[in-house]
Amino acid sequence: MSNPATHTHNVKKDDSMLRQKNMLSEYYRRVSFAHEEGKKVVYSFVPGNLTELFLTFDLVPVYPEINALQNGMRKVSARYIQTAEKIGHSEDVCTYVKCDIGMLLEGNKGPTGERIPEPDLLFLSYTGCFTFLKWFENLACHYGAPVALLHTPYQGDGTITQNMRDYMVRQLRDEIIPQLESISGKKFDEERLRSMLRLSAQAEEDLVAVLQSARLRPSPIDAYFGGVYYIGPIFTAFRGTQECVDYYAELRREIEERAAHGLGPVTPDGEMAEERYRLVVEGPPNWTSFRDFWKMFYDEGAVIVASTYTKVGGVYDTGFRHNPDDPLGTLADYCMGCYTNLNLPSRVNLLQRYIDEYQADGFLVNSIKSCNSFAAGELLMLRELEKRTGKPGGFIESDLVDPRYFSAANIKTRLESYLQMIEQKRKGKVH
Amino acid sequence: MSLQDSTGQLEEIIGYCESLYEDVDLQCVQRWKAAQPGRRALGFMPVYVARELIYAGGVLPVGLMGGGDQVEIIKGDAYYQSYICHIPRSTIEMALSQRLDCLDGLLCPSVCDVIRNFSGMWKLLFPDRLCRYVDLPQNFNPSIGGAYYRREMDLLMADLEALTGRRPTDEGVNRSIELYDRNRTLVEQLYRLRSDQPWLVPTIESYLLLRAGNVVPVEEHNQLLEGYLELAPRRTFRVMDNIRVLLVGSFCEQPPLGLIRTLEKAGCYIVDDDFVLVSRWLTRGIGAGADPVQRVCNAYLNASTFHSSKYEGNQPKRDLLLQRVAQVKADGVVFCAPSFCDPALLDQPIYMSTLDNGGIAYTAFKYAENTGQFQNIREQLGTFSDSIKLWSVQAAKEMH
Questions:
Q1: B345 vs A90: CB contact, 8 Å cut-off?
Q2: Which of A141, A151, A177 is best to mutate for the B interface (most B CBs within 10 A)?
Q3: What is the pLDDT of residues B79-89, one digit of tens each?
Q4: Which of A98, A378, A412, B188 could disulfide-link to A84, CB 3.0 to 4.6 Å?
């Protein structure tokens, strides 16, 4: 059934891609030389990251999840995972954790090959993932670094209550900010934070425009495989900076231009020529075979028009923007609103909305073996969505950064069968 | 009372507890509810909820710990991938097969992402039944985490009022606190007896006693414990040449009874464990008094035990594990965790390196609640036990 649907000539990187590449190179240089340059380093997580707050104190943020996924893409995660397993980490648990700990044990060489400095603070943004708590308890043992915990209450009833918000703001005001002051040696500058939050909101506006461009036919973007590049700067060390604003403004211009010319997404093999299937995807991607995984989709003309993974570092397309007028309250709202902090009914509602608004032919779950936060409950979500939308749901399984759990043949077969099911449904043969 | 009489009574107590353990249809809860119109029952998942408040509202707190090896999974596997632990699939199975219909609601405390998401699954599957995710604070500062928790407990009180039509009074909460404080004392006595004279209290018996506390009213559970504690010391069991071990990791999904029996048959006295931890979560009594709801909240903040689902803060759990090993004079530690249990398994490397540094022996294996083969575990533990007996420093001294 495979029928390449891309134009492989003229594979050219967009200006925004080159800009992002330069931003990341410079970021990793800053990280590597942080201590030499007298800067303090704070490790944190993507969901519930408080980048603006760290930057207010001139701290250099490091995201172990990002290092892990980059190591997965660079094909070194398998070795790191095995190194961690040798010291007692179970084969059953999160492979990001094991990849990170293996990297630490092997000298902490980051994705650029340069050494990542030890943390001066482990900022435990306990948002939407229980494993974060255990991850940093493990790192605290290895590094002996202090930990600042921000407990983000889960939206168990699908709402943010005043009590939850008060709890977050009190933690930020009475414990987190004093700890950041102590580590950085700088007084908290609320005005500086406000100005960064203003920049965050600007970038968020452009990001949402980019993501929502996928409502068009054909979609000018792939909102999952391409989407993970689009979210890079705003989910990591750049939110709240002018660089971030400039990147998203440029990206938006490029995407709007593509849309104006009726062009499809850019893939690693070039421009996608024909959009045959519009899909919504739930769950993170596999990183160790990222390109092969993506190729399975674009070879079939399948475009991902919306995904939930691109909301783990913030759900902006339902209206949230950082609000400079309420700096601590907005940070609280941001953390509590991240995708993995939503309860299952809210996740189903969001997916249903995507399926409807983006006129998807179906939805697919990429269930991650070692990520319970995403995976537990996905089979019920699948059924519920099929029931509500009448659209066919597909289910594939892989892992984040453990290549042992990526079976290309298996996934390809399942994907092809799933797309055939969509075809049959279109022809009215399946009810 | 003759020895024969007391033996018979002990067998009766344990037999009754075993029948409660096997009662996966929760007939005992149905009977309790039927005995008085208007009675309600509220299920809760591991590890900790404030049972004092639930019971004060005239509601029976019912601890759910999965279906063990007694519930055949027919529908449950369709809800969970193979790489998710077993307890949620057997609990879903029980719910879908109407075994949990006697429960008027469900509380899911914050133990891990699987149980957290289970609360959402329950909401999708049973939209008309009460389900609350209890996000226990990880911040233990009274003015921050404490203030948050108090308001969450006020919400729970409102839930209870909605269930029963009346708000629990301070007097009722105080009465409930006294009953559970008594329960804690008795459970601690049981564990002390087991630690001091483990041959008198087989782990299987103490385990069944604790499990009974999940499904019967606290008054009845106290009676069972009192009866057992009075009779067990009269036993004349032979002291075995077993090592003393601390068992860690079985706080949520429970091992099958066969596995617990195997552990002791393999030459280990389990002198401490974390089974059914709700009954030992608070390390001291709450005490009745003014504003009893606040007293329950304060107890969570100040007297919670160390645990994998609780942020360790400035009390590293590795130090607390070492303290526990010393307190119960354990020769070694057995890590006995369910497969795919993130909290337990992610703690193990921390604990292992601590034990390595302290020269304390340990071994580790995993199980599922419906594990049926124990021979390999028996051999592993037997070897562990033998190695400690033969090669420990103490054994070496004795040889010389």
A1: yes
A2: A151
A3: 999 999 999 99
A4: A98
